[in-house]
Automatic annotation (TrEMBL), chains A, B:
<dbReference type="GO" id="GO:0000976">
    <property type="term" value="F:transcription cis-regulatory region binding"/>
</dbReference>
<feature type="domain" description="HTH tetR-type">
    <location>
        <begin position="16"/>
        <end position="76"/>
    </location>
</feature>
<dbReference type="Pfam" id="PF00440">
    <property type="entry name" value="TetR_N"/>
</dbReference>
<dbReference type="InterPro" id="IPR011075">
    <property type="entry name" value="TetR_C"/>
</dbReference>
<dbReference type="Pfam" id="PF16859">
    <property type="entry name" value="TetR_C_11"/>
</dbReference>
<keyword id="KW-0805">Transcription regulation</keyword>
<keyword id="KW-0804">Transcription</keyword>
<dbReference type="InterPro" id="IPR050109">
    <property type="entry name" value="HTH-type_TetR-like_transc_reg"/>
</dbReference>
<dbReference type="InterPro" id="IPR001647">
    <property type="entry name" value="HTH_TetR"/>
</dbReference>
<dbReference type="InterPro" id="IPR023772">
    <property type="entry name" value="DNA-bd_HTH_TetR-type_CS"/>
</dbReference>
<protein>
    <submittedName>
        <fullName>TetR family transcriptional regulator</fullName>
    </submittedName>
</protein>
<dbReference type="InterPro" id="IPR009057">
    <property type="entry name" value="Homeodomain-like_sf"/>
</dbReference>
<keyword id="KW-0238">DNA-binding</keyword>
<dbReference type="GO" id="GO:0003700">
    <property type="term" value="F:DNA-binding transcription factor activity"/>
</dbReference>
<dbReference type="InterPro" id="IPR036271">
    <property type="entry name" value="Tet_transcr_reg_TetR-rel_C_sf"/>
</dbReference>
<feature type="DNA-binding region" description="H-T-H motif">
    <location>
        <begin position="39"/>
        <end position="58"/>
    </location>
</feature>
């Protein structure tokens, strides 16, 4: 299919509904066939657009997949600011637990993790997508809690993020075990106790 | 290559060195090409044996991969019994952190997680391999600590396992971030504080 690469004169605007349809098609193709077998042709077909519509937005498969998955990963954990550490923590863990039951956590991220070992660009983007935003969330929640006197000075936001997300990720996405009704409350209490008791030590001399 | 299918008369014993070579070849093939593209032919070639040698041990690819990966996952976390909860915990977290830097955690398990969404048998075996042994380790460490009075009665071993493994898995295997020198000590202190403060509540009435 010899699609015209050149956009019509003056038409630099990309239609949002087409972009949304392509994003949706990419997520569905990733879930069904995985990164290795995903093709631009199949994405375009599923979105009901020509391949040109895809190439107008992203220059190749790798760039397209990484931009779309990073976006979803970031939007899935919003920045809470409820005025209380306990509530910020419970809210974040609740949202994370919901996000982790989505196929992006149990299927798409694992698939990209496996590809990452063969492709340093995927490794780097995945690292950035999963780490940067989560670190910002951790720094904000912990910073606010320290300012309000709810957590000790020097509480490590990195430890906080790992404690907020890690147990849920392991339990839900890796071992695929449903959580009991009181699990989130128990885990939020445990994480609070962990952070109250374990401020960062002084920097090594 | 036409390997003789019939074993020598009376020879039901499988040679351990050949089994080890095949196991090794399976792990290497999984890391290189992933489950979907792994073939018995390539495994046999890499192990330097005939396909018959593989089929004498496992009846198909799925059974072979699941048995080998489950075995490695179980052996990678031994049961500690040092006489002190703090030391049991530090030792377990140290071993887990080493195991998680192995390609089985960053590559092979993610690959099987992605396959699991398409294949319930993989999902079930992975769930069992990752959950059963780890639960037993958690129950033993926590049980010993409760008996010694180091943790409160009713401490939840499931919460303990998720706290011991989850943050390390998230940090090392998912976000692929190296850990700082003092990370394990800080995290072990945090987990101890979490468990001391958070015994299981009474069952809901």
């Amino acid at each position: 299919m010899a699609a015209t690469k050149r956009a019509p004169a003056g038409a630099a605007v990309l239609r949002g509904d087409i972009t949304a349809a392509i994003r949706n098609a990419v997520m569905n193709e990733l879930a069904e066939v995985g990164y290795g077998r995903l093709s631009i042709e199949a994405v375009a077909r599923r979105a009901g657009v020509g391949k040109t519509a895809v190439y107008r937005r992203w220059s190749n498969k790798l760039e397209m997949v990484l931009e779309i998955v990073s976006g979803v990963a970031e939007r899935s954990v919003p920045m809470p600011d409820t005025g209380s550490f306990a509530t910020d923590l419970q809210l974040t863990m609740f949202i994370v637990s919901k996000a982790l039951q989505h196929r992006i956590a149990s299927q798409i991220i694992p698939d990209l993790m496996a590809e990452a070992a063969r492709n340093p660009k995927i490794a780097e983007t995945l690292h950035r997508a999963l780490r940067t935003h989560q670190t910002a969330v951790g720094e904000t929640i912990v910073g606010q809690a320290v300012a309000r006197g709810e957590l000790p000075e020097g509480t490590d936001p990195g430890i906080a993020v790992d404690l907020m997300i890690g147990p849920l990720y392991w339990h839900l996405a890796v071992t695929r075990t449903p959580i009991d009704e009181d699990y989130l409350e128990k885990m939020a209490n445990a994480v609070t106790a962990a952070l109250k008791a374990a401020p960062a030590g002084p920097p090594a001399p």
